[in-house]
Specification:
By secondary structure, this protein is mainly α. It has one domain (2-69): 434 Repressor (Amino-terminal Domain), CATH 1.10.260.40. The chain is 68% helix and 0% strand. It contains four helices and no strands. It has helices at residues 2-10, 15-22, 26-34, 41-69. The longest helix is centred in the last third of the chain and has 29 residues, at 41-69. The model has no long low-confidence stretch (mean pLDDT 87).
Length: 81
Amino acid sequence: MDDLKTLRSLAGLTQHKAARAAGIARSRLSEIECGDVVIAPEEESRLRRVLLRAIETRAAQIEGALSATGIANPLITPPGR
């Protein structure tokens, strides 16, 4: 699942951290990312929650850093504001 690996990378998580937070073995996550096994629905749900939470946290950190510099974030701030 290339998209899962990409999302994990964007979230700034290692396989170890993502797997631990989702309650699965790192080796299992590696197998899932490589497409060697089919991900179980409950594993997918847990991984999605972990990744979403991490991505939201990163987005908030970026927004905070941009705000501190006075630079508006064009991805979050609508044009004309």
